[in-house]
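Objective 1b: paired records.
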Amino acid sequence: MPSNTAGRSAHLTPRQLQLLKMVAGFRENQCYSPTLGEMACELSISRSTVFEHVAELRKKGLLCGSPNRARSLTLSSAALELLSCFSERSLPANHHKLAGIPLAGRVAAGAPVEAIENVEQLSLTGCFGSGDDLFALEVTGRSMIDEDVREGDYVICRRSRVAENGQLVVAIVGEQDATLKRFYKERDQVRLQPANDDYQPIYSDNCRIEAIVIGLVRKL
């Protein structure tokens, strides 16, 4: 008997599947949803065509979100399961070997320590865990440079709609692009604090927290 996932896949048009993948990839890379215009531009189709496909995907229970709110489009659990099946089919046979880097031991940055070789694997999931709420973003700009967060670094994020004062967050102000700042709540507004004197704090009463930063990866 075919699975529910296989049944949903069979009832999707190639364009609808393409749109689902596009929304998933956009949210993973940008931490917020694309607009109809951005989807139309990315797929080289009209806004009206995108609107019709989105409406159909809503009916099929694969997309959800407020029709009157920009960038609120999200994938349902059924859509994530469906896309996960497609991803697993496309993985190379040796993908498990590519998941980590050998952790050979320790090296001293202070007093020397005995070098003992290990046979463990160092992986991002081993360090930060796994789950649909985890993702990475590449840092652009220098607004957090005084906290040693540099352009080209990758921040590891956990999706969250709330944050504590002082936490490093990915936030959306109004309907603009996401920004990486320290979060502080002040009376009836929030302050998004940079770590660079060349940048001014952002004050807003229309700020949406998308994620909390839990780690950083850098290539030297």
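Objective 1b, second protein:
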Amino acid sequence: MEQSDKELFRRVTGAPSILAEARSREAVSAWFAATAPLIQWDVVETPIGPLYLAISDMGLCRLDFSEPEERFISRLDPLAHVVRDPGALSIFRGELGEYFAGRRKNFDVPIDMRRVGAFQRSVLDAALHIPAGSFWTYQQVARYIGRPKASRAVGQALARNPVAIFVPCHRVLAADGSLHGYAGGLERKEALLKLEGAV
């Protein structure tokens, strides 16, 4: 269909003109740039491999292990404006460096839990109360949150922890002390526990 035929078709069908459509796209793009939440991310090299970190205006919102860049970005808020910005993550990189050097046991950076449901948040909050160098069982976490029969649900909530290490789900073990279900792999879970002196 030639350009004049396309314009005729648009007039007959009531579709907007090509110019109007282009202006509409520009307006939507401008609105998105002005109102979309900003998520900044980068990759941090650590002794247990690369960590992909993302922060929002509220704090750390995602940490993934050794992900391909595209997969990591696909897990972020689809309505956000996503930008790689190493400088924006310097405080998070610094605290991770201190942690892996053995100079830090807990983190002081803000964590963004807005996309976490109430039950999972209670489980992750419980994990924050487990001292470095020790561990709890799934049953202990379930009791701590007032849901003593929810050990399996606790395990599932910990497996979906969006900010591992910063919220130390690696400090939760099975009742017999064995390692179970860690997003970064059991070898990383064991390395983190050894670093903290728990095993």
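The first strand starts at residue 38 and ends at 44. The beta strands are 38-44, 51-56, 59-65, 81-84, 136-137, 172-173.
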